[in-house]
Design brief:
This protein has 308 residues and is of the alpha+beta class. It has seven helices and 23 strands.
């Protein structure tokens, strides 16, 4: 049955926000999935329900653990009600393992689990456009089309989600896919929030990561149907976004928490045979049915980890 969405406040590539009440919104999963900064973008039947249920389980768990989050309750199998939030244009990645794009920025390092506190990195939510010297948002980038986005990236003209390094009174943005020591900053920008706000976001991100990681570590991998030798899952990394509640002014975690934003590693194996439960399978070109199977396994893991 077609969904009737009224008073759309924001429509992104994967989710839609509609007005629910004063200072409250409905968060709808559209069942879309993307990769490569919009180079691949498809709809998968049933994905909306799996992702929405994952997010509701994880967000409710964090809420019970008294983490300040933008989540009220699930209202359908594919959506939830949340307080209205003014978002900060940052993506905060917390790493329990050094893999993926981190190794592109630090090519002399090898895949490894972080010893001690997790590593936290900040990225700008928008794309730096070298042609104009300005930041553009994701919708503007997608409107260029996947072929044009790919060409502009290959020619070094656009840089989605650049890495942020903090200096006093300024931030430098860097190509997130290039060795950090070999490139100059793309641009210097005025900070979008204060040093104190960055520190608070840093601590909230680490707190949420630690709680989710410890819960997921308790999952019995043998019950997930991944493989006969699957024993445990480990949270390798996760992306968070933050903002301020419009009604109270409180800083809150305001992002989905599902396989789109995290990587779970089977048996903590980071070697050549590494297996993961994450959106990575879609990035690598898996069939829709295989992607759906991975998200089903993810929901089973979430039900074990985050049950009340």
């Amino acid at each position: 049955m077609a969904r009737k969405l009224k008073e759309i406040l924001h429509e992104g590539s994967v989710y839609t926000l509609t007005k629910f009440a004063e200072n409250a919104v409905r968060f709808h999963d559209r069942g879309m999935i993307s990769a490569g900064d919009g180079e691949r973008y498809e709809h998968i039947n049933g994905l909306d329900v799996l992702r929405a249920q994952q997010t509701c389980l994880a967000m409710n768990y964090l809420k019970l653990c008294r983490v300040p989050i933008a989540f009220s309750y699930a209202y359908t199998e594919w959506g939830m009600v949340c307080p209205l939030v003014k978002m900060i244009p940052l993506e905060v990645v917390v790493r329990g393992a050094l893999i993926g794009s981190y190794l592109k920025r630090h090519p002399t390092q090898k895949p490894q689990w972080v010893v001690g506190p997790p590593k936290v990195e900040f990225f700008h939510k928008q794309t730096y456009d070298r042609r104009t010297g300005t930041m553009i948002d994701g919708n503007d980038l997608r409107q260029l089309g996947p072929d044009e986005v790919k060409r502009l990236k290959e020619e070094g003209l656009v840089f989605p989600d650049p890495l942020i390094l903090f200096q006093e009174n300024t931030w430098s943005l860097h190509d997130a896919k290039a060795p950090l020591d070999s490139t100059s900053p793309l641009v210097y920008i005025t900070p979008v929030c204060s040093h104190e706000e960055v520190q608070k976001i840093h601590e909230l991100a680490k707190q949420a990561f630690t709680l989710l990681s410890e819960a997921l570590r308790r999952v019995n991998g043998r019950l997930l149907g991944i493989a006969d030798d699957c024993r445990t899952l480990a949270l390798a990394d996760i992306k968070f976004e933050f903002g301020y509640r419009v009604d109270t002014g409180e800083l809150v975690l305001a992002d989905v928490v599902n396989l789109d934003s995290m990587r779970l590693i089977v048996n903590r194996d980071l070697g050549p045979t590494m297996r993961h439960i994450s959106k990575q399978v879609f990035r690598e070109g898996a069939l829709k049915t295989d992607v759906l199977k991975v998200y089903q396994q993810g929901l089973s893991a979430f039900k074990q980890a985050f049950k009340a």
